[in-house]
From TrEMBL, chain A:
<keyword id="KW-0653">Protein transport</keyword>
<comment type="similarity">
    <text>Belongs to the EXO70 family.</text>
</comment>
<protein>
    <recommendedName>
        <fullName>Exocyst subunit Exo70 family protein</fullName>
    </recommendedName>
</protein>
<dbReference type="InterPro" id="IPR046364">
    <property type="entry name" value="Exo70_C"/>
</dbReference>
<dbReference type="GO" id="GO:0000145">
    <property type="term" value="C:exocyst"/>
</dbReference>
<dbReference type="Pfam" id="PF03081">
    <property type="entry name" value="Exo70_C"/>
</dbReference>
<dbReference type="InterPro" id="IPR004140">
    <property type="entry name" value="Exo70"/>
</dbReference>
<dbReference type="GO" id="GO:0005546">
    <property type="term" value="F:phosphatidylinositol-4,5-bisphosphate binding"/>
</dbReference>
<comment type="function">
    <text>Component of the exocyst complex.</text>
</comment>
<keyword id="KW-0268">Exocytosis</keyword>
<dbReference type="GO" id="GO:0006887">
    <property type="term" value="P:exocytosis"/>
</dbReference>
<feature type="domain" description="Exocyst complex subunit Exo70 C-terminal">
    <location>
        <begin position="1"/>
        <end position="144"/>
    </location>
</feature>
<keyword id="KW-0813">Transport</keyword>
<dbReference type="GO" id="GO:0015031">
    <property type="term" value="P:protein transport"/>
</dbReference>
<dbReference type="InterPro" id="IPR016159">
    <property type="entry name" value="Cullin_repeat-like_dom_sf"/>
</dbReference>
Length: 167, 142
């Protein structure tokens, strides 16, 4: 039991960064494929995000429109909260790529949210702030916290074997 | 012959890294190359967590605490589905990598195999939860 704990602590203390191995080039290619996949999916995400905040309320009565908007906003808030909380677990090491991803999401999400807010305000006037959970800057702050790098490194098999020998 | 879940456990991975319903698998012991088959594609959302998708066939290489060059497992990040390429066990955590991004989750998340469609939020979840103690993978003491 003591040996097991020693090995586990050693593993945590000696976590090392990735080391280029024989499969480095393969991984690099797959990394690029995933990068392209992320960026090329922005268009799809655009439709999904904007759908949350789109309303067809041309002929609705005042109170009906406000209720519809409130329901949509509630659903958006829940989805946004859940999405951000899930994605806090993930990190992107390439800072330039991370900024690119976040910027792309902002460019889609913030205008749609801003338009929604304006329409909501037309119906509720100053009372809109009783219903709005996030201001524009709060949305932006949450997005900017996504995918930040945390200390997560892999222990290569060679290192693990050497640890076993030490034990 | 051992099941796919038992094979993974022999390399110190929790059984819950695969969903229920694996119908068969192949393993080349010399290279670690493996293939596991499901009845069909399998997707589910783990409550309060992330969405996962498994294709009918999952392939990759397995060694002590490492799954590499994986094909057939995807995870949803924001609005995108990305292929999981590597899974590495580090102490009591599993590190998942999709190439451009990585995340670490505690082993506890993977002691029970999720069920296609409903993840861990199924009617019989409580019954199976009682078995958690018996299903913990054991590390060999040196």
């Amino acid at each position: 039991m003591n040996n097991r704990r020693f090995i586990e602590q050693e593993e945590k203390l000696n976590r090392l960064g990735p080391i280029f191995g024989n499969d480095w080039h393969k991984k690099k290619k797959k990394t690029q494929q995933n990068s392209n996949k992320i960026l090329n999916s922005i268009r799809e995400a655009h439709e999904k995000i904007v759908d949350f905040l789109m309303l067809d309320i041309n002929d609705s009565e005042l109170n009906v429109a406000a209720e519809l908007m409130n329901d949509r906003l509630h659903w958006f808030n829940e989805h946004f909260d859940e999405t951000c909380n899930i994605q806090l677990a993930w990190s992107v090491c390439d800072e330039e790529l991370r900024e690119q991803i976040v910027k792309s999401i902002e460019n889609v999400l913030l205008p749609a949210y801003g338009n929604f807010f304006e329409k909501f305000q037309e119906f509720l006037g100053k009372h809109v702030y009783e219903y709005i959970k996030y201001g524009m800057f709060e949305i932006q702050d949450r997005l900017n916290n996504l995918f930040l790098v945390r200390k997560q490194m892999s222990l290569m098999p060679e290192e693990k074997e050497s640890l076993h020998k030490l034990a | 012959t051992p099941t796919a879940y038992e094979m993974l456990e022999s390399f110190h991975f929790p059984a819950g890294i695969l969903p229920k319903g694996v119908t068969g698998y192949e393993l080349d012991p010399s290279s670690g190359k493996f293939s596991a088959d499901l009845n069909g594609s399998c997707s589910f959302s783990l409550e309060g967590s992330y969405q996962l998708s498994y294709q009918k066939t999952i392939t990759g290489y397995v060694s002590e605490g490492r799954l590499t060059e994986l094909r057939g497992i995807s995870v949803k990040i924001l609005f995108f589905w990305l292929n999981i390429l590597d899974v590495v066990r580090v102490g009591e955590d599993l590190d998942f990598s999709v190439g451009v991004a990585s995340a670490s989750f505690p082993l506890d998340n993977f002691f029970v195999s999720p069920q296609c469609g409903c993840g861990l939020d199924c009617d019989d979840f409580r019954i199976r939860k009682l078995d958690l103690g018996n299903r913990k993978p054991s590390l060999s003491s040196v």
